[in-house]
């Protein structure tokens, strides 16, 4: 299996990224973070410093992406179920089959 390529600053590839910038959508290693001063950005009053609000670890970012995909999948399943319920079948048995299928899909979704 091919190893995932991480694109960093100036379009270069990053071998072992530690951080991800949500603003610029790039991966960064320790040297890049130090170069860009992500951990010690000046505050608005230019007196104090703070960590950049867009920076996070790669693990945090990937966990967010997995969670977002699960939410998208759940919303898509809900839309499909609603569409199936709105469709009218030619007879009552057809509607009963749809309702049974919807019930099964909901149970599968709850069980994972």
General description of the model:
The protein has 2 domains: 1-53, no CATH class; 62-112. It has 3 helices and 7 strands. It has helices spanning 30-36, 58-86, 92-111, and strands spanning 6-7, 13-14, 19-21, 26-28, 41-42, 49-50, 55-57. The strands form 3 sheets. A 3-stranded antiparallel sheet has the order 4-3-7. Strand 1 and strand 2 form a beta hairpin. The radius of gyration is 23 Å and the shape is elongated. The protein starts with 5 loop residues before the first strand and ends with a helix.
Q: Keywords for this structure?
A:
2 domains, 3-stranded antiparallel β-sheet, 112 residues, two-stranded antiparallel ribbon, alpha+beta
Quick gist of this model?
The chain is built from 3 helices and 7 strands; from the N terminus they run E-E-E-E-H-E-E-E-H-H.
Architecture blueprint of SSEs:
Blueprint: E1 6-7, E2 13-14, E3 19-21, E4 26-28, H1 30-36, E5 41-42, E6 49-50, E7 55-57, H2 58-86, H3 92-111
Antiparallel strand pairs: 1-2, 3-4, 3-7, 5-6
